[in-house]
# Entry
Amino acid sequence: MREKRSRQPKYWGVVAFDFYVVFGVSVNTIKCFPVLAVSISLAFGPASCDRSQDASRVEAQNPVQQPSESDASLPNLSLPPDDGPPPKIDGERAMKYVQEIVAFGPRPLGSASHKKVEDYILAHLKGDTLENDIFTAATPEGKLPVHNIIAKFAGTKDGIIIIASHYDTNYPLRKTSFVGANDGGSSSGLLLEIANQLRGKKLDGYSVWLVWDDAEEAIKPDGSGGTPNEMPFEEDSLYGITHLADKWQADGTLKNVKAFLLADMVGDADLNIEHDTNSTPWLESVVYQAASRLGYQSHFFARTMPVDDDHIPFVKRGIACADLIDFDYGYNDVYWHTTQDTLDKLSPKSLTIVGDTMLETIRLLGKMNPLPPK
# Structure
């Protein structure tokens, strides 16, 4: 899928394990000695099992916070007042879409299951304004069919905000049971639910185009999921979204795009969205403030890393981009690009958090006048 080049480790489970190895003290023993537990908390910060409790307290207070010290590079923007009802997607319904997508099985390029997912997405968009970007990609494994699906929802302001998700699964794993529940499935189901929220009304702000982009995954093994690195990800991936960026640049559409928001691997029950240094700083700041206004900031930007993902073709063309991705899927990313990427690892609450934050980001962008330079 995408390449990660650096990360800031943060596993509290490792702290507990190391404590047992070094001091011979089990976690159960710690529970029996409150003073020791307090000492560990002061030394290392809250344990992962307390994260949901901490998040609940934060969400109840609902403060608007500036990014943490690790995200000091985010600019401090003056945003519009926090008025109007907060957005609220149906996370359970989004999860149902994810389940139905996953039920088709692996969906690599050119497969029957891939075509079924194309038809499934199109069926849910019946009656919406659609653009189908269909072409044949020349890949290291030969020519393969690619189908980008775009649903367009009109707004009152000139300009377009794109929300994207890839829906194909890893091609090198096509002969396994890999279904990409989180990787491609979670975000594709989420976009169908976002379409429900946008449909049937003129949007107060920019037009929103939802993009289910295809052929995001590398065709040759790229070293992920324990596979050999036969070809670098950046040389053999992002076929669909690159074609779309080229097409829109050629026909003039690109100059009307105000922002590009990407959702990827957003269903993890232990949700922690990265601060991606390949994204546009001011747009990342808007995303963080949107999350903060909704009380979700504890799920955002605890880690900083550059991520090569579907947004890169638009970054290269000067479009403001933000990649909402949790790139820590299981301990040391053990589930990513493996057959362990299954529905039991996902949560409707995580889909709600990301979906609400994206809709709030759209609302804020629509009220910012002017937007910062791209």
Q: What stands out?
A: The chain has a mean pLDDT of 85. The longest helix spans residues 348-367. The two ends are 26 Å apart (CA to CA).
